[in-house]
Amino acid sequence: MRLLIRNGRAVDPASGLDAKRDVLIDRDRIVAIEPRIECPDAEVLDASGLVVAPGFVDIHVHLREPGIEHAETIESGTRAAAAGGFTAVCCMPNTLPVNDSAQVTSFIVERARRTATVHVHPIGAISKGSKGERLADIGAMRSEGAVAISDDGIPVMDSGLMRRAMKYAASFGITVIDHCEDLSLSAGGDIHEGLQSMRLGLGGIPGCSEDVMVARDIILAADTGSRVHIAHISTANSIAMVRHAKRMGIPVTSEVTPHHFALADEKIPGYDSNFKMKPPLRTQRDIDAAIEGLADGTIDCIATDHAPHTGHIKMQEFERCPFGITGLETALALSLKTLYHAGTADLKHLVGLFTSAACECLGLDRGRLRAGGPADITVFSTEREWVYDVHSTLSKSKNSPFGGESFRGGPAATIVSGKVVWTAGGGIATRPPSAPANKMPSFQPTTRIQPR
Ligand SMILES: [Zn+2]
């Protein structure tokens, strides 16, 4: 029943901790974090040379269940999350049917309870069917466990509806997450509008299609007092506007995906559909702005926008295939590579982007490492070299542009409610947090775990 994580570098941005610590877990709680803990009856996980962090939280994933289970299920998606070091995910409502009612929200909560490897928080829709016409049952979804509202994937074009949604959200104390895209400006586009779209003869999605909606949402957030979170921010202009809004005290936050700060549009190798997503990969100038935005707090957190699509649907002609890529298993490694090893974020800041800062955007009570708190812990390496094999992904889909990519550092072990659910050497170690602890984790006591 007891697990002792020994000799790790414990990093907890919320409390400022960054020191060598042992962490003792009893059932689903952390009971002690001390320089040296002796507990002879505890199973030992040797974390020498590894970072012991609060469980990572991804506030933007698509789990595809109900309705699109050939691409992903709550079970497969949360296994991929565990392999990426995440102990909790928030899932977007664009399923079939759309999560716009208490029934769908409670289905997801119940399904997660029975099949998920990590904690799952549903995000409810803003509008019925995400059609942008009538508000969804926000209060009812909230009662069933929805932590925020969003019509992600299908932008809310009607500013009047968005304003009403924000007023409702403010009264329930939840955040509105917006996928900022003016469809009249992005229509017919496949990649960012610029030299690369001209070179490839593909339709362009101009940066202004995002910027005008970010501007609108900031104005509406100021008007309603609602908390607004800009999903997958991607342009220098949008980042500048969020910076200005924060200085004015407007309650706006933002996230960036690893692919948006790791890849520029000029790196798109011809017509590989694994480089097609919304918003599209932007320019190096936008990437520089994102890294600066992460450094000065304009961008609050990193989220993956994990968007699985099955092979035969994604592997069509570039113009025909759907937007979106998977991202749970590569997020930490890409962030280590682009931010930490490049010297633009120290370890404490980087961990915060995946934990406490991400949780603050939605008001989630997670993302801290403290005695008495829940035993959701991410153990990772900053140094171990590995290659991402997309064919061994735990997701049902393989639409990642990072297959074959070499990384330095990545997840080593994922602990959910006190159970080791995944290790780099052993894959998924146990069943869901709610299942009885009948299976032992795959690591042996005092065995050193192999970071991937
Ligand atoms: Zn989106």
Question: Number of DSSP strands?
Answer: 19
**Rg measurement, Å:** 21 Å
Strand content: 15-25%
Please give the CATH class of the largest domain: Alpha Beta
The number of helical elements comes to: 14
* Total domain modules: 2
Ends: how far apart? 26 Å
Can you tell me the CATH topology of the largest domain?
A: TIM Barrel
Helical amount? 25-40%
Going by CATH, the architecture of the largest domain would be Alpha-Beta Barrel
Largest sheet: 9 strands, mixed
- What structural class results from the helix and strand content? alpha/beta
Query: Could you tell me the mean pLDDT?
Result: 94
The CATH superfamily name of the largest domain is Metal-dependent hydrolases
Which stretches are poorly predicted, pLDDT < 50 over at least 5 residues?
431-452
What small-molecule ligands were found? zinc ion
